[in-house]
Amino acid sequence: MHxxxxxxxLVEQVDAVIDQHNAAQASLIRVRIGPLAGVVxxxxxxxxxxxxxxxxxxxxxxxxxxxxxxxxCQTCGLDTEAAMNRLVCGACGDWHTQILSxxxxxxxxxxxETVPTLxxxxxxxxxxx
Length: 129
Ligand SMILES: [Zn+2]
What we know:
Blueprint: H1 2-20, E1 25-33, H2 41-52, E2 61-66, E3 69-73, E4 79-82, E5 97-101, E6 105-113
Parallel strand pairs: 1-2
Antiparallel strand pairs: 1-6, 3-4, 3-5
The structure holds zinc ion.
């Protein structure tokens, strides 16, 4: 399952972000997926909890931002949005287009939670321990 390795890579990326910010855990992970990325968001959403199990993002919510497909027309020179099954120029309809975006798979943002670091207090100890 391709999405599982994508999810594992995502977990590693988020893990690095958590470290960078000295956070305790991630609460929300936003991923930008273009229709041409070759990743099915639903499958990634299914694979993510498996990859994140036991990690500092196991309770994080996964959100997807759907990136549009943008093409550059070599005939009229305009950049327009295109449909996945029809990569033609939106202005003149020409097929001679170059894909500018829509194949990306990016970690867009991560919301982190920090747990306040309290000094261990003797009042929290039970007398018998
Ligand atoms: Zn055009």
